[in-house]
Amino acid sequence: MDNTTSPIPQIPLPPVSRGWAIAGGIAMILLGFIALGDQLVATAAIATFIGFILMFACAFQLIKLFTIGGWKSHLWYALVAIAYGVAGYVFIAHPFKAAIAFTLFLGWAILIGGIFRAFLAFKMRHHKGAGWVLFSAAISVILGGLIISQWPGTGLYMLGLFLGIELIFAGVGWLGLGLSAEKK
């Protein structure tokens, strides 16, 4: 068998626009620091954005409601549409209350995910690198526990904090990609 050919087709790499990657990276880093600078406003913006997404979901469910046949399906689509609409309204009308409730859910999700990942790490303990899985599980358990233990106060800033950190790290990734791209 010839070792130079691979049975897996090679996907051509898309070109990287050095300038756009650097500019986008810098912009994301700046937005991340702005979000970290006023986490309360960033949290309200995220909650409002989630509310608008839920309202669009409500509209799509209502459209779907009128395109299907059968009463049983109509009932379920109507209930889902109502749930999306009510949740969307709450997120838009009361962004801080919604963010506080959502943060509690997020804290529990992170904590429970970390516990399950710890069990997985123990099941994989004979695999090389399983310690990293256990390490990430411990971080998740600690982070989830901190979010829950400081709740409801964490609800006022946690989403803005996560957004700021995410934007900074994503921006650093794009900036690094742009700086490492070939100059043309």
Can you put this structure into words, describing what you see?
It contains six helices and no strands. It has 184 residues and is mainly alpha-helical. Helix 1 (18-37) packs antiparallel against helix 6 (158-180), helix 2 crosses helix 4 and helix 2 packs across helix 6. The protein has one domain (18-177). The mean pLDDT is 88. The chain is extended and about 60 Å long.
Low-confidence regions? none
Q: What Rg is obtained from the alpha carbons, in whole angstroms? A: 22 Å
Mean pLDDT: 88
Question: What's the end-to-end separation, in Å?
Answer: 39 Å
Would you tell me the structural class of the helices and strands? Answer: mainly alpha
**How many E strands?**
0
The helix content is over 70%
Q: How much of the polypeptide forms β-strand, as a percent range? A: under 5%
Gross morphology: extended
Fold topology:
Elements lengths: L17 H20 L1 H27 L5 H23 L1 H29 L6 H20 L8 H23 L4
Task: Please tag this protein with its features.
6 helices; mainly alpha
Brief sketch in words of this structure:
The protein is mainly alpha-helical and about 180 residues long. Helix content is about 75%, strand content about 0%. The protein has one domain (about 20-175).
